Amino acid sequence: MRIFCYPIIVMPTDEKIIALTFDDGPTDTPEILKFLRIYEAKATFFVIGKRVEEYPDLIKREIIEGHEIANHTYSHRYFNKKMPVDRIEDEILKAEQMILNVTGEKPNLFRPPGGYYGENLVDATKKSRYQVVMWSWHQDTENWDTPD
Ligand SMILES: [Zn+2]
Q1: What is the mean pLDDT of each run of 10 residues along the chain (148 residues)?
Q2: Does pTM surpass 0.85?
């Protein structure tokens, strides 16, 4: 996979397509999977490492149903510009290990909690070979405001 040194926010295309992504799981995943199945849609799940440990069966189900698993840190720690690269990398690699334990594959995509992006994050994701993927801020569903 080609890794860009900038985060992917949108990909220019003439096709009428969207990329569905779900963060912070696995928790309410069964409900989401149900709707994805109904609409024959595939999604990328940016999962939190410590939740992967708690719900390995949900991760396995996402894989079996054809979805992609991506890295969203081990503990959903918010990064900032003062955080050392190795601490950011530690969060990424710890989550990676949890995902690897369950899926047998290293994820390629990473999304930082809260959308933090700085030089230290670029260094950490480059070292651990991740493509950073954000979301379309300009089309915020604001569903984070009412998580249920
Ligand atoms: Zn998150």
Answers
A1: 80 91 88 96 97 95 97 97 97 98 96 95 95 84 72
A2: yes
